[in-house]
């Protein structure tokens, strides 16, 4: 791969163009993903309350099962980007194929576990007697689509590593449209009910996986790369992804603890907490798009042996993270009179919601830095440090959050503990980037 001179590639304007070119399509693809569940909810909601409740339980289980394997996208992005930076496109494609084969193996394992245990899992999540049959039906059918979902994650990582975030956007839009059409057709026209919604999602996810595989296979053939599974390569992908799995599980533990604490505060606070958490997730899409750009860009610079380019890109992305966080925080404050009525008309919920929203707005610049540095270190393949940093963060957050109810704190105190969590994450990530130990050049991180 031909590289421009370092001086030409280290200017702020050049980095801005790279970040925008990768982050904007990535943002669109990220926003499209949760729309799958929204479409299912909208269609199934007209079948009845029990069906919608069953969907809610099954969707939560399904989302958890898939999201814990998000490392398939992150680790693959970093590994492929390094190969691209080193000018080894055949090796980049081979690296991506290893990630896809790992996704298929993990998907098969999840099916083997989830199908027989679906009733127990639904019961564990507290589904009612009327909702349970619908939850079990949806979960069992949708589980068949998990291998395709994991292939989508891995293949998305391949394309991001190849500096292509537009194709994932197009595939996500196509998948969303297909899912909506299939749901309407199978649920109502075919009369399959909630099972039709599940089958629609399975078919749409498999179509997305097929589209990704067509792109990757075409690239493999162009560069003469084997499509056969390679045991050593698959093991290497699993080894690289394991620390990121620990990081993801620790992060999800934070969210579960926060929700559990909010539930102990009472119905008003848990309702307000759910609204703040929904907004938090929406804001995260914008910041995560910059992190995705960071994974791809940093991996490519390090693969090319360009330490200064990687440092310059990191600095520029931090500026982007701070600026984005400030803008998002101001938007939260300015738009609160508009979006709060969309969620609730209960004055008690509004009173609990407002100060927690202000805390969320204030920590957005911190969140911007956290997301960016998280992406930088992922792009560098610094997974073990990210795992330890998140474990430390969880160890600090958990006792503080769990003390909130016993100390008489409310939702605002809980979200102050979330602000503490983000501050600890920023401190651990900032120390790592300042140390320079994340900078390891070469086509493969040793």
TrEMBL record:
Keywords: Cell membrane, Membrane, Transmembrane, Transmembrane helix, Transport. The chain crosses the membrane at residues 19-37, 57-80, 100-121, 141-162, 169-191, 197-217, 244-263, 275-298, 318-340, 352-373, 385-404, 410-431. Signal peptide: none annotated. It is found in: Cell membrane. The keyword Transmembrane helix applies. It holds the Pfam family MatE. Its main location: membrane. The keyword Magnesium does not apply. InterPro entries: DinF-like (IPR044644), MATE_fam (IPR002528), MdtK-like (IPR048279). It is a multi-pass membrane protein. Belongs to the multi antimicrobial extrusion (MATE) (TC 2.A.66.1) family. PANTHER family: PROTEIN DETOXIFICATION 44, CHLOROPLASTIC (PTHR42893:SF46), PROTEIN DETOXIFICATION 44, CHLOROPLASTIC-RELATED (PTHR42893). This is MATE family efflux transporter. It comes from Streptomyces luomodiensis.
């Amino acid at each position: 791969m031909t590289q421009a001179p370092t001086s030409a590639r280290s200017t702020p304007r050049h980095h801005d163009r790279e970040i925008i070119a990768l982050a904007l399509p990535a943002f669109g693809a990220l926003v499209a993903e949760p729309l799958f569940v929204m479409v299912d909810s909208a269609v199934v909601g007209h079948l009845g309350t029990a069906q919608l409740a069953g969907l809610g339980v099954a969707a939560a289980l399904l989302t958890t099962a898939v999201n814990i394997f998000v490392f398939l996208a992150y680790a693959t992005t970093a590994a492929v980007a390094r190969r691209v930076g080193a000018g080894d496109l055949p090796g980049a494609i081979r690296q991506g194929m290893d990630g896809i084969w790992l996704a298929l193996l993990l998907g098969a394992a999840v099916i083997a576990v989830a199908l027989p245990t679906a009733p127990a899992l639904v019961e564990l999540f507290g589904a009612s007697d009327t909702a349970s049959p619908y939850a079990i039906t949806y979960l069992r059918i949708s589980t068949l689509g998990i291998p395709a979902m994991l292939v989508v994650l891995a293949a998305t990582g391949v394309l991001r590593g190849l500096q292509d975030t537009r194709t994932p956007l197009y595939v996500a839009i196509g998948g969303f449209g297909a899912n909506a059409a299939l749901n309407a057709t199978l649920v109502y026209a075919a009369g399959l009910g909630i099972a039709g919604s599940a089958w629609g999602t399975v078919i749409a996810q498999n179509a997305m996986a097929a589209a990704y595989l067509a792109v990757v296979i075409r690239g493999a053939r162009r560069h003469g790369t084997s499509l056969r599974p390679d045991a050593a390569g698959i093991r290497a992908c699993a080894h690289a992804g394991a620390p990121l799995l620990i990081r993801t599980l620790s992060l999800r533990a934070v969210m579960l603890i926060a929700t559990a604490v909010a539930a102990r505060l009472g119905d008003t606070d848990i309702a307000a907490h759910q609204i703040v958490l929904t907004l938090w997730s929406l804001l995260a899409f914008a910041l995560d798009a910059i992190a995705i750009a960071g994974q791809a860009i940093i991996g490519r610079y390090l693969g090319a042996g360009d330490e200064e380019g990687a440092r310059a890109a990191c600095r520029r992305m931090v500026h982007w993270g701070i600026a984005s966080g400030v803008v998002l925080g101001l938007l939260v404050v300015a738009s609160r009179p508009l979006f709060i009525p969309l969620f609730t008309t209960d004055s008690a919920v509004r009173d609990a919601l407002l100060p927690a929203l202000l805390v969320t707005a204030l920590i957005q610049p911190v969140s911007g830095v956290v997301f960016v540095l998280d992406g930088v270190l992922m792009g560098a393949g610094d997974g073990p440090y990210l795992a330890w940093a998140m474990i430390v963060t969880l160890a600090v957050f958990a006792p503080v959050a769990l003390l909130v109810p016993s100390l008489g704190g409310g939702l605002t105190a809980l979200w102050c503990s979330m602000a503490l969590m983000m501050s600890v994450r920023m401190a651990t990530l900032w120390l790592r980037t300042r140390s320079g130990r994340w900078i390891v050049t070469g086509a493969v991180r040793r």
